[in-house]
Specification:
By secondary structure, the protein is α/β, with parallel strands linked by helices. The chain has one domain: 3-Layer(aba) Sandwich (Rossmann fold). 32% of the residues lie in helices and 29% in strands. A 6-stranded mixed β-sheet has the order 6-7-8-3-9-10, sandwiched between helices. Strands 2-1-4-5 form a 4-stranded antiparallel β-sheet, with helices on one face. The radius of gyration is 17 Å and the shape is globular. The chain starts with a strand and ends with a helix. Bound molecules: adenosine-5'-diphosphate and magnesium ion (MG).
Length: 235
């Protein structure tokens, strides 16, 4: 069953069009990556999906679980079961781990209990009363993912969750994504520049270049096709 279907999406900013006919389809229970170089349009694509105030969507359709997201107010989208973990792992720096999670619960109808979420994040459970400004980059990323789980989503969009993190934390984030997918049955669209992360966690991959989907490949093909990786991802 198709959960997310993006068809012929055109979007951009005051400064000009950035996406030109993007097609992305994610089936229920899949982990799919959207790969592309810096500036390819990855963040623009997922911000368009969740109805952020920018970019402006100029054309195409976005359907989640049968709902037309272009006709849905952005604050309703988490209630439909779709959440975004934005790039830059923003959290409220002066609030504790627990306060950050409780605040996220205010925006949803049927939030998951904080304790239930913290079970999956022993690192965060150990610092639940600490302000998040004192946390490491990896811990902040875990908190950003945990915040997004409060809505008990059916699908999660993650924007470069491993960016700038040390290799052992990257492994930990990869295993959290696997747990979310396998144990919580959350469908995942992972935005990445890091091919190794995409290869480790995703079932298949879309490649975005200059605002266009230029290929859709299996993990096996992505691993083996060096020419493809060099051309569009530079690795
Ligand atoms: N708020 C914005 N205003 C104007 N242009 C933007 C804005 N955000 C991104 N862009 C431009 O859109 C293009 C795609 O950016 P983005 O979607 O952030 O790429 P990616 O996430 O793949 O690195 C880039 O050329 C970028 O400069
Ligand atoms: Mg980005």
């Amino acid at each position: 069953m198709t959960l997310l279907e993006v068809r012929d999406l055109a979007a951009g900013y005051e400064t000009g069009q950035v996406l030109f006919g993007v097609d992305v389809t994610v089936e229920r229970d899949e982990v799919v990556s959207l790969l592309g170089r810096n500036g390819a349009g990855k963040t623009t694509t997922i911000r368009a999906i969740v109805g952020a105030d920018t970019p402006h969507v100029q054309g195409g359709s976005i359907t989640f679980d049968g709902h037309d997201l272009r006709a849905t107010r952005s604050h309703r989208i988490p209630k439909l079961g779709l959440t975004l973990v934005p790039e830059g792992r923003r959290c409220f720096e002066n609030m504790t781990v627990e306060e950050n999670l409780r605040l996220a619960a205010n925006h949803v109808t049927d939030p998951l209990a904080v304790d239930l979420i913290l079970d999956q994040f022993p690192e965060l459970a150990a610092m639940r009363d600490r302000p998040s400004k004192n946390m490491s980059g990896g811990e902040k990323q875990m908190l950003a993912i945990a915040r997004s789980l409060v809505a008990n989503p059916r699908m999660m969009l993650l924007d470069e969750p491993c960016e700038g993190l040390a290799p052992y934390i990257v492994r930990r984030i990869e295993s959290i994504i696997e747990e979310i997918s396998q144990e919580r049955d959350v469908t995942v669209l992972l935005v990445e520049q890091n091919v190794a992360v995409a290869l480790a966690v995703a079932d298949r991959h879309y490649i975005l270049d200059e605002g266009r989907i230029v290929d859709a490949v299996s993990t096996e093909r992505l691993r083996e096709d060096e020419t493809l990786r060099q051309e569009y991802l530079g690795v």
